[in-house]
Structure prediction request, 260 residues.
Amino acid sequence: MRRLFPVTDMTAHATEAGDREWSLDELADAYAYPELPEGEGAWLRANMVSSLDGAGQHDGRSQPLSSETDMRIFGTLRALADVVVVGAETVRLEGYRPARAREAFAARRAAAEQGPAPVIAVVSASLKLDFSLPLFTEPLVPTLVLTGAAAPAERVRAAREAGVEVLVAGDGAGVDPVRAKAVLAERGLRRQLTEGGPRLLGQFVAAEVLDELCLAVSPTMTAGDAQRIAGGPAVAVPTRFAVASLLEQDGFLFTRYRRI
Ligand SMILES: NC(=O)c1ccc[n+]([C@@H]2O[C@H](COP(=O)([O-])OP(=O)(O)OC[C@H]3O[C@@H](n4cnc5c(N)ncnc54)[C@H](OP(=O)(O)O)[C@@H]3O)[C@@H](O)[C@H]2O)c1
Prediction:
């Protein structure tokens, strides 16, 4: 792994050591959340992968675009988060499972007063989710569902009968991104990570609640008509981000941008 940005006096040395795999501790330091003011606010980062030509999926999955290092960073970002917010379609297509407790991050999580693994919060309007899946029946920390006040009553009941907590974060059928961020923060889940998918991420961007994007640029091209990493209606004025860091491994660029 090589650090290409920020450039420091150590960059030359770091480049020489470029073939060395970074430890999980080094990755965790590199991706640490910013300090949040005592008891208030939340930081929402997204972690996504894209091909060179902008595809956020291939054959309905992100895995063909990914790499071993990308998955190590994916795991590290999860290990730093209080909550992983994910769209229902990604849960359905990617067969989401509960987050695991990782020995490598146990001390760091304990010091940050975090539970053994992040909470998974699934965003869904329909609640067409299989509540008998391990994501809902076997998590170390209970999986949450975020929905709107007008969600189908029988699906809300099905979730609750399965012991799944349903949080309302919107007045209509859907979730309001601003409320979702606030509702999670009120529960103390302030270090927030979204893993998409594109339809959900587009709404976070449009509502200006996305603070940071960790984007892995995969050295692949797919052509075709795959979704980009953010979809839905375009924003009126493109949202500006500034580069915070840039790492490279095996041709993958691991970028981190902060909203300005
Ligand atoms: N490149 C990457 O890093 C990456 C990351 C994640 C996923 N992906 C890929 O993206 C694809 C899936 O993404 P997607 O964009 O189609 O779907 P998605 O964003 O994962 O999920 C869309 C679903 O989320 C729920 N949802 C979204 N916004 C909502 C709101 N405001 N209120 C309530 N519910 C809301 C709805 O669920 P209901 O239908 O249940 O109402 C909606 O159908 C997969 O192919 C996956 O592999 C790529």
User: Anything to note?
Assistant: The chain has a mean pLDDT of 95. The two ends are 27 Å apart (CA to CA).
